[in-house]
């Protein structure tokens, strides 16, 4: 089977499952993010080791995998997660480097790489859960939502699910727009030393398409489905910022792979490479989206 066929087949099977989990939220979403973060951390440390670093990878993978579950428990009120806990984790990693790396084992680099791997994966992707239960939808998740019928069964899509899909759709629009315009127009390369295939025209195309899709989603989906509104200027700004974030995330992961001398972060996903290859844009997008949705005016429409 060709790589393209594998890619299409995997997407047909995985995309509906992932979308369903995103819309349902709760424990299934936390579990999905835990798996993604743990595997993403494993891939990151694998790339880091290829550059000569010596991270405490076992500890980093475990902490990255647990982080979304801790976020879930915090939102349920089972525990109270405080910034001081994150500081204790960092200090614990530094202390562990004393005994596991010593003077000759690059203790500074080991500690820094381990902490960064956790932040780059779980620290960023954990915002996916936070977006699903963002303050702008908390407290009225039962207020009118999309009510669909699938296979004869009623299906209700809650506002939090609609909100989380928003940055996902804008990210996909950036990828599609950049690819289509880049292939059609061509022209000067964006950063050939990092990603030889990307062009300036593709970057601009991705930006424009994402802004238009953001405006359309805000008007046609977010407002009627989640009863939330964005001004046209706010929707365009949201799309532009997320497009820049998505393209920056893609380039940063390419930069890491270049340093490690790797084409893909791994070969776990048929036809797609690794987790980081698929989530590189969202690693940058999700935190930016969370902040923007807290800043931009989003009135509740009855």
Describe what this molecule looks like in 3D.
The protein has 10 helices and 4 strands. The protein has helices spanning 3-24, 26-50, 57-76, 83-100, 107-125, 127-132, 159-185, 200-226, 232-260, 275-295, and strands spanning 146-150, 153-157, 189-191, 195-199. The protein has a two-stranded antiparallel ribbon with strand order 1-2. β1 (146-150) and β2 form a beta hairpin.
> Shape, please?
globular
Separation of termini? 51 Å
Write down the domain tally: 2
**Overall radius of gyration:** 20 Å
Widest sheet: strand ordering: 1-2
The amount of helix comes to: over 70%
Let me know the largest β-sheet: 2 strands, antiparallel
Strand coverage percent: 5-15%
Tell me, rounded to a whole number, the average pLDDT.
88
Keywords:
mainly alpha, two-stranded antiparallel sheet, 302 residues, 2 domains
């Amino acid at each position: 089977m060709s790589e393209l066929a594998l890619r299409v087949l995997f997407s047909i099977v995985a995309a509906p499952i992932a979308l369903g989990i995103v819309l349902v939220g709760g424990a299934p979403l936390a579990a999905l993010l835990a798996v993604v973060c743990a595997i993403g951390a494993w891939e990151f440390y694998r790339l880091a080791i290829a550059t000569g670093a010596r991270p405490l990878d076992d500890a980093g993978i475990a902490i990255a995998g647990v982080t979304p579950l801790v976020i879930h428990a915090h939102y349920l009120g089972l525990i109270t997660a405080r910034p001081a806990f994150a500081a204790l984790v960092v200090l614990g990693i530094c202390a562990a480097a004393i005994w596991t790396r010593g003077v000759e084992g690059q203790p500074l680099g080991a500690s820094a790489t381990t902490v960064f791997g956790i932040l780059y994966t779980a620290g960023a992707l954990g915002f996916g859960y936070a977006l699903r239960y963002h303050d702008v939808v908390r407290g009225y998740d039962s207020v009118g939502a999309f009510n669909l019928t699938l296979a004869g069964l009623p299906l209700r899509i809650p506002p939090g699910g609609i909100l989380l899909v928003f940055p996902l759709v804008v990210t996909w629009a950036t990828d599609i727009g950049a690819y289509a315009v880049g292939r059609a127009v061509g022209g000067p390369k964006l950063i050939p030393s990092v990603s030889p295939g990307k062009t300036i025209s593709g970057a601009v195309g991705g930006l424009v398409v994402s802004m238009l899709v953001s405006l359309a989603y805000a008007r046609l989906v977010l407002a009627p489905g989640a009863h939330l509104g964005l001004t046209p200027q706010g929707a365009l700004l949201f799309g532009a910022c997320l497009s820049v974030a998505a393209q920056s995330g893609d380039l940063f992961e390419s930069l890491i792979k270049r340093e490690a001398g790797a084409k893909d972060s791994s070969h776990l996903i048929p036809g797609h490479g690794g987790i980081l290859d698929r989530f590189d844009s969202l690693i940058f997008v999700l935190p930016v989206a969370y902040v923007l949705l807290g800043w931009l005016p989003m009135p509740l429409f009855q």
